[in-house]
């Protein structure tokens, strides 16, 4: 099939943000002989972006007629469903990050994640659960790959081979799963750390892992002053859930809604809330922005916006989240946002949300409070 027909919708779009790339094509080409011989139901796809690997694997050969797929991002899940529906492709079964997605799989296709922790957790799940003869075909753009990825895969597989490069992309093949070692490694996730009495729990690939990044730390230092009379609050793009948990701990009467489009982030935020004894007051939802929250309903939203879309730098995600905050805030409600100072978001916040003041600043980050008009 022509992968150029795929679309990113409903995700952020733009000239530098394609729905597929040369790495997807190389993965599919290298996997083609394995897909042709795969029995029905024995093919799995992990961390597909917008459906190139999943739809491509279904159309390559008769063997891949029932493809199981797990995508971390909700926007990716919706893009795959929309692309498959528009192109008339069936036989696709979306699943959560659990053994059933790769149980007994003979062929697994995947995009190599930027995070080595994510690669470690995913490869452990495959090696612990898939068929002993499984072949994993994992690829990416060379500029985002490292030799450390080979070593991470060797933690769960006895053999790792490397393809020739093509169009600045490369594929790693993993075979001979080390089931016992992989099972032990899988049991080590999620990871947790305690910082000044706050326990942070994270699955692989979540921003900052079980740490508190310096931007979030700056936000937490001043968040006690944010709308002190608020009875509800939102941790938007919650990641590991540290902001939502901190708000719930500091304000015993407040209920928090935490949202993220990443399934790994949602699982991490729920675990963080539970570890800090506030799970009854922190509702964690996988969502695109604040789609699950009513318009004009919130008094306080806290946000540390991402500025990467997969491997590409993009401010489009932040602007999308600013607009979501503007829609969801009640008149006079406030968005407290921390951002890399070089991104100069203050003008956008003024335009999209309302009057914006600087609350704190250090060498790299700025915290602002924007009042909904």
UniProtKB/TrEMBL annotation:
Residues 5-176 form the RlmG N-terminal domain. The keyword Transferase applies. It comes from the Bacteria. One of its GO terms (molecular function) is methyltransferase activity. Residues 198-368 form the Methyltransferase small domain. Keywords: Methyltransferase, Transferase. This is Methyltransferase. Gene3D superfamilies: Vaccinia Virus protein VP39. InterPro entries: RlmG_N, RsmC/RlmG, SAM-dependent_MTases_sf, Small_mtfrase_dom. It comes from Gordonia liuliyuniae. GO terms for biological process: methylation. The keyword Methyltransferase applies.
């Amino acid at each position: 099939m022509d992968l150029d027909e795929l679309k990113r919708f409903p995700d952020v779009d733009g000239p530098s943000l394609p729905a597929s790339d040369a790495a997807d094509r190389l993965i599919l080409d290298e996997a083609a002989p394995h897909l042709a011989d795969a029995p029905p139901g024995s093919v799995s796809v992990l961390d597909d972006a917008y459906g190139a690997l999943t739809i491509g694997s279904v159309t390559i050969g008769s063997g891949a007629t029932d493809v199981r797929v797990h995508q971390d991002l909700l926007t990716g899940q919706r893009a795959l469903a929309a692309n498959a529906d528009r192109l008339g492709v069936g036989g696709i079964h979306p699943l959560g990050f659990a053994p059933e997605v790769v149980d007994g799989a003979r062929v697994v296709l995947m995009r190599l994640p930027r995070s080595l922790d994510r690669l470690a957790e995913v490869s452990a799940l495959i090696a612990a659960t898939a068929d002993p003869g499984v072949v994993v075909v994992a690829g990416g753009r060379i500029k985002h790959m490292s030799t450390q990825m080979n070593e991470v895969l060797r933690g769960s597989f006895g053999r790792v081979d490397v393809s020739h490069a093509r169009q600045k992309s490369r594929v790693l093949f993993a075979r001979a799963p080390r089931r016992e070692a992989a099972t032990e490694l899988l049991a080590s996730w999620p990871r947790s750390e305690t910082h000044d009495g706050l326990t942070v729990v994270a699955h692989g690939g979540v921003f900052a892992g079980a740490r508190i990044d310096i931007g979030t730390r700056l936000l937490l230092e001043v968040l006690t002053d944010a709308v002190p009379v608020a009875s509800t609050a939102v941790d938007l793009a919650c990641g590991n859930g540290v902001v939502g948990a901190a708000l719930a701990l500091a304000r015993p009467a407040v209920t928090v809604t935490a949202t993220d489009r990443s399934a790994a982030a949602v699982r991490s935020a729920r675990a963080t809330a539970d570890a800090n004894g506030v799970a009854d007051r922190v509702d964690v939802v996988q969502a695109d922005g604040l789609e699950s929250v009513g318009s004009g309903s919130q008094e306080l939203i806290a946000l540390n916006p991402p500025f990467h879309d997969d491997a590409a730098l993009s401010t489009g995600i932040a602007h999308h989240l600013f607009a979501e905050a503007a829609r969801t805030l009640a008149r006079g409600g406030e968005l407290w946002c921390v951002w890399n100072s070089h991104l100069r978001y203050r003008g956008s916040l003024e335009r999209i949300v309302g009057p914006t003041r600087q609350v704190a600043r250090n060498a790299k980050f700025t915290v602002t409070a924007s009042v909904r008009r």
